[in-house]
Write a structure and sequence with these properties.
Elements (H helix, E strand, L loop, with lengths): L5 E7 L3 E5 L2 E5 L4 E2 L4 E4 L2 E2 L17 E5 L3 H10 L18 E4 L11 E3 L4 E7 L4 H7 L4 H8 L4 E7 L1 E3 L6 E3 L7 H11 L2
Parallel strand pairs: 7-8
Antiparallel strand pairs: 1-4, 1-8, 2-3, 5-6, 5-12, 7-11, 9-10, 9-13, 10-11
């Protein structure tokens, strides 16, 4: 029997300066793991900020989840781009996710699916779209393009039932209508931006 999916890490960050080429912008992308229960509210996790609410945050983008299974890919391409050493592990939250998950990838998730945690419930609302800040935090200009090619985008969650969440918790995936898959949605949205 396949083990239940789990939250490996809960990550938050205040908005802070991020160097993007010759300029500095505010960003909440570089999140850090929290070692205790974190309050889950309608607009996101306690202690987390989004610097640009026009593209991040809001009811349908309250929480961002990312599969840990993609971390080796990013570690390898960062080493190939010579912005990190081979074997340098990325800390959870590095790609900007609030929840680093194991056992649940984009290919197994549809818009409307519910993630039932012990003390809160979240609904899959959409796919992440990479931007120039993702390139900056990854350290090389092709990072967003690689996210599009790989489909390793993660997914946004809306808060259905506020509560708390903590690292180590397992959760149940409750299927929704299963009409729009995250991978298909991501590819469709990104094709329109080319």
């Amino acid at each position: 029997m396949k083990p239940a999916p789990r939250v490996l890490s809960v990550n938050v960050s205040p908005a802070r300066p991020l160097a993007v080429g010759e300029r500095t912008v505010l960003s909440g992308i570089g999140k850090r793991a929290v070692a205790c229960d974190v309050a889950v509210r309608r607009l996101g996790l306690e202690g987390d900020e989004q610097a640009d609410p026009s593209v991040h945050g809001g009811l349908d983008k309250a929480v961002y989840a990312y599969p840990v299974e993609h971390y080796p890919f990013w570690q390898t391409v960062r080493a190939q781009a010579r912005v990190a050493a081979w074997g340098d592990a990325l800390p959870h939250g590095f790609v900007g996710e609030n929840l680093t998950l194991s056992g649940l990838a984009e290919s197994g998730v549809w818009v409307g699916d519910r993630l039932r945690f012990p003390r809160c419930e979240l609904a899959v609302a959409g796919a992440r779209q990479p931007c120039y800040k993702f390139n900056a935090v990854m350290g090389f200009p092709q990072a967003a393009k690689l996210m599009v090619q790989s489909g390793y985008c993660g997914f946004y969650l809306a808060v259905v039932e506020p509560g708390t969440i903590a690292a180590g918790e397992s959760f149940e995936l409750r299927p929704g209508p299963r009409e729009v898959g995250i991978v298909e949605l991501f590819r469709s949205v990104m094709a329109k931006h080319r």
